[in-house]
């Protein structure tokens, strides 16, 4: 099974969750566009314990830590969604991590969410909880529903807020796949712990 990992914004926890789900499924990992350094592929790879997951090189590594459409412009690169194809892999599971949130532009017409939409691939939505995150999460949910993108479920990352989580789950109708606590340290053991928990909900 292939999953596209997206989020309500930048730094919501997509890469951490990508490592967790790759560990749970022993899946391969691919980030189509990397804008800026350090590379998320290196971060994910550094958290995996299993020996089956392969890290597939990015199609584009852009130098500027910015929106892909702007980082590509600086590097003199043209990004078009139709030019991206799902990599062939012998693994039955592939995890693809998007850049930023669903409406991060890759050019003047297309957005990150166009990738799973054109590939007809279910997404997992990662949401971190902060003042204003209900609004940001539900706006993201509305866009996913408007586009008819399939959603496997939602992951909450960071300090728990049951009131926020409950209203998000009620309005979206999505299943909660995992709650990632505000861990003091992220390491192999933590990733394996959450991977075991996640397996029960996939």
Automatic annotation (TrEMBL):
Catalytic residues in the record: 31
The protein's Enzyme Commission number: 6.3.3.3
Compartments where found: Cytoplasm
Principal subcellular localisation of the protein: cytoplasm
GO molecular function terms noted in the UniProt entry: ATP binding; dethiobiotin synthase activity; magnesium ion binding
Cofactor(s) required for function per UniProt: Mg(2+)
One Pfam family in the UniProt entry: AAA_26
Catalyzed reactions per annotation: (7R,8S)-7,8-diammoniononanoate + CO2 + ATP = (4R,5S)-dethiobiotin + ADP + phosphate + 3 H(+); (7R,8S)-8-amino-7-(carboxyamino)nonanoate + ATP = (4R,5S)-dethiobiotin + ADP + phosphate + H(+)
Residues that bind Mg(2+): 15, 97
Binding locations of ATP: 11-16, 97-100
Pathway(s) this gene product operates in, as recorded in its UniProt entry: Cofactor biosynthesis; biotin biosynthesis; biotin from 7,8-diaminononanoate: step 1/2
NCBIfam families xref list: bioD
The family this protein is said to belong to: Belongs to the dethiobiotin synthetase family.
Name of this protein: ATP-dependent dethiobiotin synthetase BioD
